[in-house]
Amino acid sequence: MNPPPFLSRALPVAGMALLVFGAFPQKPLAATPYKIVNTAQTMGTGGIDYVYTDSDGRRIYVPRGEQVLVFDLDTLKSVGAIPNARARGAAVDPKSHHGFCSSSPVVMWDTRTLQTLKTIPIQGRPDGILFEPLTERIYVFSHSQPNTTVIDSKDGSVVGTIDLGGAPEQAASDGQGHVYVDIEDKDNVAVVDVRTLKVTAHHDLGGKGGGPGGLGLDAKNHILFVMCQHPQTCVVLNADDGRILATLPIGKGTDGGGFNPATMEAFSSQGDGTLTIIKENSPTDFEVVQTLQTKSRAKTCALDTLKNQIILITTEPAPATANGAAPTPPTAPNPPGGEGRGGRGGGGGGPSLLDILVVGR
User: Fold this and answer.
1) Which helix (DSSP H) or strand (DSSP E) does residue 130 occupy?
2) Do residues 347 and 341 make contact, with C-beta atoms less than 8 angstroms apart?
3) Phi and psi at residue 105, in whole multiples of 5°?
């Protein structure tokens, strides 16, 4: 059957329009913005610092007061606590199912039962902590000597110590033999050979950023995202030679960061109540794509690699009691230069609420 005359004239025009439209690559739709998708609150006392997510075991670890609180990563409900552990951070070896916290002494526990297995005496003032998967070791960082104590995560024995030449903050492992560590008071990133336990390089920030507190690592493309306090900047470095690739603005009071290889995004959590999201469009092209409002003092964060969600923590004053009296508000975070920006901020002056925030799409 022959088409009507008007349709005969329209078909070639429509075909040409399709050809022209299809000849130009279409700009992909912007990624869905991040938002707070879940929250939880629990009453308690004591300051907080780092939050840690065990994505395999589906647990969140929050050191607070004299214990490490443990929550279900999916429901945010409490599942227990590690007692007698006044710590700053926690880390887990998913293979041996052993957990550790940066306390003095270090406490080692079974992540399935939460039972303490042993305590490990170390020197220094434990602060940050990292699990290194290639050698299956725990790195405990200190602002005083020794800067790093390395522990075998299988049996809890101390393997050795490392002089980083300054005060370490956050660290990241590439899983291929290198650990990268922010050196807060020297404005550089130390590179550690995990086999020899020696520092092989210091990547200087070249005056582009100071007081680094957060760190993200794109291990595949060998790119470091160094989150700095002053100025409020992410300095992007080549992890191999320390070349500065870019600088990008972030919020005020960074104390945590990371990188998600599934989304090719770096992120930085800030004490001013913001979370900065940086997109790696290519190994030479980076941009800030979102600044999300979170909560005041939510300055440390961790990544749930299973759900591609970011976990943050903070504290806030507890509600007034039945007689109308307000409890003592939490103390302010320690300022830079004292116990370090990684100090146990908030909740030190009396009962306060611990807030857990889950950020996702």
Assistant:
1) strand 126-132
2) no
3) -75, 165
Angle among Cα 273, 277, 278 to the nearest 5 degrees reads 140
Beta bridge partners of 212: 228
Residue type, 65: G
Do residues 203 and 236 lie in contact, with contact meaning Cβ atoms separated by under 8 Å?
no
- AA identity, residue 98: H
Length of the chain: 361
Quote the distance between the C-alpha of residue 55 and its chain's center: 13
Distance CA 139, CA 358 (A): 26
3-state secondary structure 300-352: EEEEECCCCEEEEEEEEECCCCCCCCCCCCCCCCCCCCCCCCCCCECCCCCCE
Indicate the residue type of 162.
I
Supply 7's token pair: 């349709």
Domains and CATH numbers, the chain: 31-318+333-360 (2.130.10.10)
User: What would the pLDDT profile of 255-293 be if each residue is shown by its tens digit?
Assistant: 999 999 999 999 999 999 999 999 999 999 999 999 999
* Torsion angle, alpha carbons of 162, 165, 170, 175, to 10: -50
Q: Kindly report whether the global pTM for this prediction surpasses the value 0.85.
A: yes
> Which residues does 138 contact at the CB level (< 8 Å), separation at least 6?
91, 93, 100, 106, 129, 130, 131, 132, 150, 151, 152, 153
Of 359, 340, 333, which Cα lies nearest the Cα of 48? 333
Q: Which amino acid is at 69?
A: L
pLDDT of 91-112, one tens digit each?
Answer: 999 999 999 999 999 999 999 9
